[in-house]
């Protein structure tokens, strides 16, 4: 029987179709999180094919696959799962925040943790949530190896110092580059006084999804000229496809100072100063205590002898604070459009009297998929921050200087309302609150848009346009009853507008070839322009204290305005290669130009390279059940620093007045050879994961050497100039970093995880052609840590006569120091006696989840640093001055044979209050940085009220501090020092941070 060929083909086609359907089936399933909540928008892909599906609003999906074929299930922020296709699948995805699949944000792209060849530290929203701070930097303290974060003091707006792997500059900026959603941020302190305002105080921490800190040169060199001090990449929250989610976080709490210093009460003050006077004038001279004498004058009609007056000025300065924070967000979207909207309000009443903050914020993030090839997005943020300010540490109007007042003086007049400024030893700070004000208002607008076009599947083009506008106004008024009484009041107004525009255009090419090679190449350009305008005016003489603006002044005493601008033009490229998923290579190059440098050195080249070897992917370890990851990596790169004045290379002239005639005078020497400060950094590290990644971590060793230091080098006074910015000298930072993450216990009911980080730091100045630079109690010297303390060494008290003693420390012929003691201060030589930077830092975080309860705490510690108390010569001077004294001064020498470290009390006579190690203390500490306890209501309860999640929590900040430091706080320092000043580690009436406890509520609808 013959069959025609066309019939044969038809039969064959039918058989093939039947065979195909016999092999392929439609499988259904559901994707949920570990608690059983559906994950709408989860992606399901058949491995090594183009077949895919997406979960619906209830987490359900249907996909065509062969039975047993591998399905890859993924969702942003969650661990990717591979599972064999089977009927009725239930797939649970866990949090990937500590997994190798976690995607890290890097400069102009992303990279999985497993394939990173860089050292990048990361914290997520989960790590920072519910920490009661007004700025996001403080929420990261203790969680990042090699990153020191310190708020200068306890003022609500206080500046924050974030140091990545030490200090790499002397006179140039020591701050990292902050980048928000790809846009470099304005990070200039615009305070109208020497006390800084944190420039990033306007950001709402609740809007942040993650923060990546680029620590090594391989990661930071893509930002070239500004990567020396590290790069902080901030990513804000985005919407997720699926059901619209409404979240509310509301909390309120109270604060107090972490520590108070013990001061003399009225009886002790009278005893000590009577004794100090007797040394100078004799015991028969009662000029202090006689009726109508000095003490009666202080008491202002009250009887100090019977204890009628005993003012605790510290309690007036450090008060009970309060904090409340309310944030809501709406997020969601579908396969085309994702959105995130949020609004927030924070009110922080400081622990320093008269210091408060209010912040209102809005954020809107939108991403839209126009087609399979074209996506666009717009991120916007608006905020208004109002700050009620107080004086800098070096002003009598600041509350904490009130501790210098004698306790014999009442704080108020007899009416109990009006501050007493008649008989106090110094200006009564309460007068400023009673008859003055100081307000700062910050309006900040952030906008960042992008458009991304996929030219071909492997090649995409992205353009980003960012705008940052920071408007800050400060108005200060001191009425006729304040320290400005002689001018019948004083007022000033300071307005600053800063704008930054940034444009990034870059191509990304990503491909896989020959099955074993993955290549990604990024190349593009970046342009930034920053402009700043300032107007300032001041006046005196006001007809009424109710008229408090400068327009009511009878005399304008000062007025100025200024404008400045600078820009960067950069070209960059990066190539990343992965071979067989185990050999990793990366190289980057950035070519940066800045208007700040001389014409002959305007551009700098910043290369970097890194390699990685995933040993655990080799055949001899690939099947190991104990080792999940073992990766070696190494990197080298060059980064720069451009944190100097906008016109530092130019010879400048300025307008002036001479004999009431306009004139021009030179104001700055020219230096056309000024060039980039560059840091070369080497990093070697090991990443590891054992026992199904229940134990994971990383170990790193790095060396950073900064050359061509940008230094404001002092010049001889005879030159007519005070300093000149030059490239001179070098310094080195090196250290080890260790991170260990463990899952200590895990079952259906209980999970306990620990994260530990340790970091060492060895900082040395290696070259300084001009020799030592000394400023106050600090010195920059070759072979020593930058800004080391350089003071006379205190030797205690002579038990025979109560004289303060000092070690001579003169150099002997054999090269040793003479350790003989002397009472003559000028006979003693200064020595280097410590430094302001810790040599060891550590942090440990524990998180525990038990049924519906959650508990976490973070300890943080620092060792090796010191602080010099510049105020010690007034407040711990054995009654040299009339300032109130710390209570330890009662242990003074009184008779021959007394063994003590406090010299004899001698009013008006020097006896140990000179600058010496007497006022230098180690600041080693361990602090319970934060503790949180929460309870999430069962779903059986919340579903009845149409709530997805309801959590009640209590959080504490700075609850315990273990230290031998006797001052207010081992982290609080003088806020009157600029960032480029080598004077570091100085305390001067510096307020401690707040100890805060809050109770809050999280609701998800």
TrEMBL record:
InterPro entries: Beta-barrel_TonB (IPR000531), Beta-barrel_TonB_sf (IPR036942), CarboxyPept-like_regulatory (IPR008969), Plug_dom (IPR012910), Plug_dom_sf (IPR037066), TonB-dep_OMP_SusC/RagA (IPR023996), TonB-dep_OMP_SusC/RagA_CS (IPR023997), TonB-dep_rcpt-like (IPR039426)
GO cellular component, one term: cell outer membrane
TonB-dependent receptor plug domain ranges (all copies): 113-231
Keywords: Cell outer membrane, Membrane, Signal, TonB box, Transmembrane, Transmembrane beta strand, Transport
SUPFAM superfamilies per the UniProt record, alphabetical: Carboxypeptidase regulatory domain-like, Porins
Domain TonB-dependent receptor-like beta-barrel: 407-781
Primary subcellular site in the record, as a coarse category: membrane
One Pfam family, short name: Plug
Coiled-coil spans in chain: none
Locations listed in the record: Cell outer membrane
Topological category with respect to the lipid bilayer: Multi-pass membrane protein
Signal peptide: 1-22
Similarity comment text for this entry: Belongs to the TonB-dependent receptor family.
NCBIfam families on file: OMP_RagA_SusC (TIGR04056), SusC_RagA_signa (TIGR04057)
Listed name of the protein: TonB-linked SusC/RagA family outer membrane protein
